[in-house]
Amino acid sequence: MNNRQLEFYFKDYTSYDELIERQDSIIDRQSPEFRAFEIAVKERIKPSKLMANITETGFKDQDKLTLIEFDTFSSKSLFETKGLVGVLKVKDVKVDMEDGESQVFDVKITITSRFDQIKPYFLSYMLSYENPNFSEDFFTESSDEDLLAVLLLYLFKKQLKEAFRQGLFRTYQRKEYNDGRIKGAINVPRHIQENLIFNGKVAYTSKENTVDNTINHLILHTYDYLKSSFPEVTVKYIDQDNEMRTIINSLKEAAPQYFTSNRHKVLLNSMTPLSHPYFTKYEVLRKTCIKIFRNLGISVFDGKDESVNGLLYYIPDLWESFLLHNYKNYFLGEEFFVDAANNLYIFKGNDGKDYRKLIRPDFVFYRNVDTPFFILDAKFKPKWYDVTARGKSLNPVYDDYLQVINYMVSYDTKAAGVIFPTNHGEILNNEFQISPFNEKTKFYSFEVVVPVGDCTYKVWTDTFKQNIEKSMSKILKVIKSKL
Known about the structure:
37% of the residues lie in helices and 24% in strands. By secondary structure, it is α+β, with helices and mostly antiparallel strands. A hairpin with a 5-residue loop joins strand 7 and strand 8.
């Protein structure tokens, strides 16, 4: 009997007071469907499973280990999402009924950016900010398919480029030959079988360090599978990229046995992790290729298929990387520099022990190497706009505020602030006083306005770039006043 399919769609950092299934039907809290959702989230999606499915992220933030939180501070809220976006599938969720029977469900949870109300423009831009020129054809009619295509194609493309910079992957493979140029161990049984009549040939086995290997076959099979699943998107996003086209063609020329290799066999032979000391990027790519096949429904892993599968990103990390890229672009040639690799130990006593607590502000602005003068922390939670633009209570973001003040005191700067995305509009007043006893030190709040996606992607990106420039100009004006 086939499992019943349940699909749920959410936005990041959003509170929900009811559970709605894909067909827009509200799920009763006493129903087996609601219980299946609870079991999937509370029992099956453990932190270790999230870590296995989150892409390219550290785990310094507890939000990265939480997909959906049920124990919320709001009495009106049933549950709320955190900063993870993507798709997660939980198979074989068993719900025991009161009558002694049981039902089994497959639960699919999709979380998209709260800024993507219509099509995934914002998430796509965050994933590809260095080259955000998607074709309009990239965004098809089905928004959930868009998200999966964006995540899978972006990840494969990015990691393949990084791996290829290490060169074509080479490893030792056993090759079977039957000719007169013996360069390996003679295989007597096969020789008797293939050369019963003397013909000048000898059957032998050779161990060769070759590019024509299982991992490169896996990469090519993954490319073919993506192209068959998302043909127009793959042509636009991969085939028309000169670097990607060169990589794929190089692999096909160097690994001719790929054309006759069996995909099922290649997948099974690719399950063992790579431990090569040089080709480190190919291990990351190998995992991604297998993840792609699993997420698109290939079940050829002979019992090794995980019951919890997905592809997740921690979107605040994407936001932080996006901001750093823009700082480098807009502040190039200025009288200061921005450092994002900040590690500072604080709190030292008179007992001879060293500083004992590590802090990591997102962005520290320096006049020179030894003189920090401004702290700016990347934030992604939605409440910052309400606090700084609408005069609402500081309580929802108070922990973030104290964190930034701590950074400012520890680095001995006279100014600090936050920068966050919003789709509510520009903030007119960006400067705030700390307290009546400290009016010299200032706290700043900078917004980056995200357009609503009810337009073409080109119009959206043009508007977003203009908004980014406005925000960078605001920041630059404040920074120059502090120099």
